[in-house]
Design a protein that fits this description.
- The complex is a heterodimer.
- Chain A is an alpha+beta fold.
- In chain A, about 25% of the residues lie in helices and about 20% in strands.
- Chain B has 2 domains: about 110 residues, Alpha-Beta Plaits (2-Layer Sandwich); about 70 residues, no CATH class.
- Chain B has a 5-stranded antiparallel β-sheet with strand order 3-2-4-1-5.
- Chain B is globular.
- The relative contact order of chain B is 0.19.
- Classes of the chains: A alpha+beta, B alpha+beta.
Chain lengths: ~240, ~210
């Protein structure tokens, strides 16, 4: 949990207003104090403080997973960052090949937050329908610790974070099963999640997953994130 | 990460972009490559950018930011990811045209209306490689903040711009204690990546402040 150094705090209230979960208040001496039970470890207060009065203190296990709320999480989960480059470097990594679809599922976004218990519900559902979960994503640490018994279901219920991005891929032909699974699990979680579907362009710039989504009655948003293919060496297969 | 994908509202003049080096693939001479990108940013007038999800042009002096970026590019090239936002389709086209010409070999990703980005690709003779299509928000949507606040907050996909802060600046604008521009800049400082669109936010806040 971040810690306020009282001697440096000038009581300007910037952190109080910026905190997304009302975890910060001023005490009777007009110094900021942080309520650890509410804090999501997003780091906003550390970045916004004009006098550097808020310091990062590494939370104990299993609360360290909360640092996934931070856009630039401190390197304490064992896996750098919050997720992979997904589509961003696909032109040079070939993470998603022709005939495959990738998924990015931002749990808790936008502006709602989530417990790790809901995160795991979605991960399990994806696994059930044959999604290959991305190994370079901190999601695997949560699953591994749960399977080994280091984390319990009660722990998961008690760890609330701003958001987490889940990643995986499967074949294009399996997309209908995944969409059905997401439709099922959206009724089981107490949060929101934003879904992205990744695929390669065809040579004529058509988008293979769109036809499948249309058949499933899923209407994509009119916007997307597009890798322009300017990376080198270019993955072409 | 998908922090530029799921934005709410009209995105006609809103094109976040990301330039992502891949260690072991295209990071040779990375500081020089990134300096070239910064030269192009200046040429096409892109003011808002940041790197490594840690600092943007509103949080530090530009020269200092560039210095830090060069250091990161030398020390940990995988973190030297430049992100920013174009505030018009014309600006995006000019930016991508120049990136294509200099051919740095770095991956370039653009978020925005699919039809607009693909139109630019066609005009510039670019064959896009892959796409992440947004299927929007699923689950308990009744938990989302009400009204058009999400049009402002989702410009930071990591959720660092909170709805209460937006309500606060709207009240300050209504009471003539803050201009929409100053409010937009205050919000943009919460988003360290540099993808928060200050121009769009300024217009939105001015509009939203007129209603309660």
């Amino acid at each position: 949990m971040p810690r306020v150094v009282p001697a440096r705090c000038i009581g300007c209230c910037l952190c109080v207003r910026a905190c997304p979960v009302k975890a910060i208040a001023l005490d009777t001496n007009k110094k900021a104090v942080i309520d650890g039970s509410r804090c999501l470890e997003c780091g906003v207060c550390i970045r916004i403080c004009p006098t550097n009065a808020v310091e990062f203190v590494e939370p104990p296990y299993p609360l360290k997973f909360k640092v996934l709320s931070n856009p630039a999480p401190p390197k304490i989960t064992g896996i750098p960052g919050r997720g992979t480059d997904e589509v961003k470097t696909n032109d040079v990594t070939g993470r998603y090949r022709r005939g495959e679809v990738g998924f990015t599922i931002d749990v808790g976004r936008p502006n709602v937050g989530t417990t790790l218990a809901d995160v795991v519900k979605i991960l399990r559902k994806l696994e059930e329908v044959g999604v290959e979960l991305e190994r370079e994503n901190p999601q695997m640490l949560i699953l591994e610790d749960l399977r080994s018994g280091r984390l319990s279901y009660e722990d998961l219920e008690g760890i609330r974070i701003m958001s987490v991005v889940l990643e995986g891929k499967t074949s294009l032909s399996n997309l209908p099963r995944v969409i059905k699974a997401l439709r099922d699990v959206e009724k089981e979680v107490n949060t929101v999640f934003s879904v992205g579907v990744i695929c390669r362009f065809e040579d004529d710039m058509s988008i293979p997953c769109l036809k499948v989504l249309e058949e499933l009655g899923v209407t994509p948003m009119p916007f997307a994130k597009i890798n322009l293919g300017l990376g080198r060496p270019l993955v072409t297969d | 990460m998908t922090h530029t994908l799921h934005r709410f509202g009209n995105r006609e003049n809103d094109f976040p972009w990301l330039i992502t080096p891949r260690p072991g693939v295209n990071t040779d001479n990375l500081p020089e490559k990134l300096r070239e990108v910064i030269r192009i940013l200046d040429e096409v007038g892109i003011k808002m950018w940041g790197f490594g999800a840690s600092k943007n042009t509103l949080m530090a002096e530009k020269e200092k930011l560039i210095e830090e970026l060069m250091e990161v590019a030398r020390r940990s090239p995988g973190v030297a990811r430049l992100r920013g936002v174009c505030t018009s389709k014309e600006q995006l086209k000019a930016f991508v045209k120049k990136l294509k010409e200099v051919d740095l070999g770095l991956s370039v990703t653009v978020s925005g209306y699919t039809k607009d980005v693909l139109e630019i690709c066609r005009e510039l003779g670019i064959k896009p490689h892959s796409i992440n299509v947004s299927l929007g928000v699923w689950g308990r949507k009744e938990l989302l903040p009400e009204g058009r606040i999400l049009e402002v907050t989702t410009m930071c996909g990591h959720g660092m711009v909170n709805p209460r802060l937006v309500q606060y600046v709207l009240e300050e604008i209504r009471n003539n204690r803050m201009t929409p521009r100053a409010a937009a800049i205050l919000l943009a400082k919460q988003c360290p990546c540099g993808v928060f669109n200050v121009e769009r936010a300024e217009e939105l806040l001015a509009e939203l402040a007129k209603t309660r």
